[in-house]
Amino acid sequence: MVRHLDTANSLPTSQSSWLELSSKCEIIQAGVDEVGRGALFGPVVAAAVILPNNALPQLVAAGINDSKKLSVLRRKQLFAQIIACSDWKIGYASTAEIDQLNILQASLLAMKRAVLKLSVQPDICLIDGNQLVKGLPMPQKTIIKGDSISIAIAAASIVAKVWRDDLILRLATKYPMYDLAQNKGYGSRRHLLALQEYGASRLHRKSFSPCQVKLQLELKFD
Fold first, then answer.
1. Which domain, by its residues, includes 55?
2. Is residue 21 situated within a structural domain?
3. Are 73 and 164 in contact (CB under 8 A)?
4. Which of 22, 81, 129, 197 sits at a 20 to 30 Å CA gap from 159?
């Protein structure tokens, strides 16, 4: 039977030092995080990252942090550094799966897909948040605000963010009216106004209330 570590044992968010540098743990740990839960457009994307121990000091020196606290330039620099030294994989859940399952379950599905793609099976997965991922064949530990506590989770948040942003930028050329290049699929004022004027495209999340306007936009390139 797969053993899961209870969410009650999650590390406190007040811990000041990085988890991996405050312990002498020799087991293989995968950091897992997702991005795009609150977006109105596009998939929810997760990354799973296994970092070698010798890369940790360099990443800390480079300023690794929760992706939301980094500039676009710093995220891209760290992304290149992370993928050059780690085993990393992306998993995602489509807008159709989000509408079918709900955003929480779709996010967990994206996390599961990312972990199962890893070339090396980790001894444990460090999951950002307080929700265990069903169906993983290894123990898990949930860590609230884990992207500010675990270097591996912070790395996963950066990889997932940069990968998803690049995807949305490519899609922005196909759906120019929604200002996706600026809002990355989130509900900015211009995005909401465009939904009112044009309706939702096929890549909008129809289960999200701001997308339930007019009839679905039938674009010639859909």
1. 26-172
2. no
3. no
4. 22
